[in-house]
């Protein structure tokens, strides 16, 4: 039962995160490149 709740919750979370990532895709790319530079 707990596994079902976790799956449903993660699906809802995924549905919520994806549009945000698409909207902030440019910002995300900049952040990734920045973190890559920072980690080197």
* SSE order: HH
| Percentage beta strand | under 5%
- Total strands: 0
The averaged pLDDT comes out at 81
Form type: elongated
Q: Helix amount, in percent? A: over 70%
Q: What is the structure about, briefly put?
A:
This protein has 40 residues and is mainly alpha-helical.
List the helices and strands and how they pair.
Elements: H1 2-23, H2 25-39
Polypeptide structure, described:
Helix content is 92%, strand content 0%. The chain starts with a helix and ends with a helix. The longest helix has 22 residues, at 2-23. It is mostly helical. It is built from 2 helices and no strands.
Relevant terms:
40 residues, mainly alpha, 2 helices
């Amino acid at each position: 039962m707990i596994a079902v709740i976790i799956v449903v919750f993660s699906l809802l979370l995924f549905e919520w995160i994806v549009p945000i990532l698409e909207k902030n895709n440019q910002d995300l790319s900049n952040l990734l490149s920045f973190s890559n530079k920072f980690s080197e």
